[in-house]
Design goal:
Strand content: 5-15%
Largest sheet: 8 strands, parallel, barrel
CATH topology of one domain: TIM Barrel
Bound molecules: flavin-adenine dinucleotide
Distance between the termini: 55 Å
Helix content: 55-70%
Low-confidence stretches: 1-96, 193-208, 492-512
Mean pLDDT: 76
Shape: globular
Length: about 625
């Protein structure tokens, strides 16, 4: 179990690590406190606001990054039982201090030259001919000036703005600068294939990129890259995350076929729900099993025992829908009465080998992450890959977020709120996590593949999986954030029931079910709504601990820095890689910023204002 010993190791590590910010140290403590100390608050009759103090202390002490402060924050945490009154005042201060329009605070850890660079880059991005032809101009520059000179210019400008460095060691200054404002890094190896038509027309602010499948050896090589990324997180930003794309670890065509197969299984299972009311009775199940399969006599009794362990007369629909894996389908279709779409989607023996290889690669990376206490974000991709990605990720979560092995989730799945089916999927996955005793953790994004999704749906003559309007996507995003905080609060609330009847063991188990949420978004309104919800509906700190906020490096700094300064778990998505390899990523960043949104122009004004303030006064 990672828990006590492991988390106390984390605490020791952060308090003695010179690179660690006070925030980093207290975050470990706070994380520890949410899952371990939390029940104790109740036992001693002290409420959660105690924890807010560590956040406000962080907010009030971020000017200094020395280890004395880290130690102080640890000690304060330990003595927080005695200081709750003062601390809730401080917490109020911290809340009101969160101001996304305050350039002085937001940019205080950025040097003036780096602000001037940001201003120049964003201004350059507003010249359409430059941005629209960026790839051609770079190719021309390679021909006329040579690669070394071109790379040097790119490195001093766009690369400096949007990337952390070429190697993990290069990332240290960027991470140290972020740490000074209480921000940690999400490391992402950003080598990618050149943007194609599809990604060029996709919406802005996406770290999303395309890995072109070459062969299985290339996928093995990607395993080494992701493992190195995990180790870099541990070395450079131990309270951060590593990001991973599953399409880099297996042939995307295989993932697409597996997704089709999973969808067909799901449709078959839905057919068992004769009344379409979401409930499958044992009688329905028996009837339909006979209808579809020839092996009812031998298989049905065992299956029912497993799917209705309490003899309730109802089938556990979630268990049933998650039970069948693509690997089981060839065996399953052998017993179907009539072959149909499921038989067509069944994997071939070669598919099964490739599938096992992709799973092995993913497991290798996750094992390294688990062993190094590094958290892993699995990116969401196109809907034609997503069922396979979800399937792989839930298996990983079951193994590495197992609450008997760790008090904090190691694996986070990503959910895209531009999809209509996201709330339903999340609620099923949360229930599945509760039943299987693992921590649920989600990164919530709006989604980066809208144009491609809509085009594909239109080509196939099916309804688009994307919401009809951007407002629907916003509502889905904000509603899902609240749903997840409620889920966290409710799991926690089992803990804060009747003090007289507290059973510590049960409380620990219940607290460990609480989910964690990362908001991957540049949308200020969503962030403000989330914070307001946490502070007003969710017992404040208990949920601050489980809430994470992330933006891309070099973009919407006013949000990330204010969040970090305000004591929230704030992160920058920090891409790294050789200049030549990350060019497509840089070109996309430039193209996105050419399309000045309201938020971006506000940020540009803030940068300008802060430069003026520093230079002219
Ligand atoms: C840290 C981080 C991690 C990310 N990880 C992923 C990932 O794993 N997978 C992924 O797909 N994306 C990812 N993204 C990108 C993300 O999905 C969005 O594309 C991007 O962040 C812009 O959304 P926003 O929340 O910042 O808000 P906004 O800029 O307010 O909203 C723009 C988004 O709204 C949606 N939208 C726009 N127009 C419409 C419309 N007409 N109808 C319906 N919806 C519409 C689109 O999703 C669009 O991207 C990530 C972003 C960040 C910052």
């Amino acid at each position: 179990m990672i828990p006590f010993s492991r988390l106390s190791k984390l605490v020791v590590r952060t308090t003695t690590n010179k690179n660690a910010s006070p925030l980093a140290a207290s975050r470990s403590i706070t994380t520890l406190s949410s899952s371990l100390y939390h029940p104790r608050y109740r036992i001693f009759g002290i409420n959660h606001n105690n924890n807010n103090n560590s956040n406000s202390n962080r907010a009030n002490s971020t000017n200094s990054t020395n280890s004395t402060n880290s130690t102080n924050s640890v000690m304060r945490q330990n003595s927080s039982f005695a200081t709750s009154a003062i601390d809730s005042d401080e917490s109020e201060k911290s809340k009101s201090a969160l101001n996304f329009s305050d350039g002085e605070t937001s940019f205080k850890s950025k040097s003036t030259p780096s602000l001037i660079l940001s201003y120049s880059i964003f201004t350059l991005c507003t010249f359409p001919p430059l941005v629209q032809n960026a790839d051609r101009l770079i190719a021309l520059s390679y021909r006329l000036l040579g690669q070394t000179l071109t790379d040097t210019v790119v490195k001093a400008t766009f690369f400096q703005q949007f990337c952390g460095g070429e190697t993990p060691d290069d990332l240290r200054p960027t991470i140290q600068m972020l740490n000074q404002s209480g921000i940690n890094g999400i490391l992402d190896y950003a080598a990618e294939n050149a943007p194609d038509e599809e990604t060029e027309t996709d919406p802005p602010n996406q770290p999303a990129r395309t890995f072109m499948y070459q062969n299985e050896e290339q996928c093995d090589h990607h395993v080494d890259i992701f493992k190195a990324c995990v180790k870099a997180v541990k070395d450079v930003t131990p309270n951060g995350f590593a990001a991973l794309k599953i399409t880099a670890l297996g042939d995307p065509i295989l993932l697409e076929r597996m997704s089709k197969c999973i969808n067909e299984c799901y449709k078959l299972m839905k057919e068992f729900d004769t009344n379409n009311n979401g409930i499958v009775t044992v009688a329905d199940f028996e009837l339909n099993y006979h209808k579809f399969f020839v092996d009812a006599k031998t298989r049905l009794p065992g299956l029912i025992k497993r799917l209705d362990p309490t003899n309730s007369g109802q089938i556990d629909y979630i268990e049933w829908s998650k039970m069948v894996q693509p690997e089981d389908v060839p065996r399953l279709v052998k017993s179907v009465r009539e072959s149909g779409r499921l038989s067509d989607a069944a994997p071939t023996p070669e598919d099964l080998v490739a599938l096992a290889n992709a799973k092995r690669r993913l497991d290798e990376v996750a094992q390294v992450a688990f062993d190094n206490e590094v958290r892993l974000l699995i990116d969401a991709e196109q809907t034609w890959f997503q069922p396979a990605i979800d399937n792989f990720t839930l298996e990983l979560m079951k193994k590495y977020n197992d609450k008997t092995k760790t008090d904090v989730p190691i694996i986070f799945n990503t959910y895209q709120c531009y999809l209509r089916n996201t709330p339903g999927r999340i609620s099923k996955d949360i229930k599945f996590s509760h039943r299987n005793g693992f921590h649920f953790a989600a990164k919530l994004v709006r989604g980066a593949y809208m144009t491609a999704e809509r085009a594909r749906a239109e080509d196939s003559g099916v309804k688009s999986p994307i919401h009809d309007t951007i407002q629907d996507t916003h509502d889905c995003y904000n509603g899902t954030v609240q749903y997840l905080f409620d889920a966290r609060k409710n799991a926690g609330n089992i803990v804060v029931g009747d003090e007289d009847k507290i059973d510590k063991n049960n409380n620990d188990a219940a607290a460990a079910h609480a989910c964690e949420v990362m908001l991957g978004s540049h949308n200020q309104e969503s962030i403000e709504k989330a914070i307001e919800y946490i502070e007003t509906h969710c017992d404040g700190d208990g949920n601050r601990v489980g809430a994470h906020f992330a933006q891309l490096l070099g973009m919407r700094d006013n949000l990330t820095f204010a969040l970090g300064e305000g004591g929230y778990n704030a992160y920058k998505y920090v891409p790294y890689g050789l200049v030549g390899e990350v060019l497509p990523y840089l070109i996309r960043r430039a193209q996105e910023n050419s399309n000045m949104t309201e938020g971006m122009s506000e940020e540009l004004d803030m940068i300008k204002g802060e430069i003026k303030r520093r230079l002219i006064g």
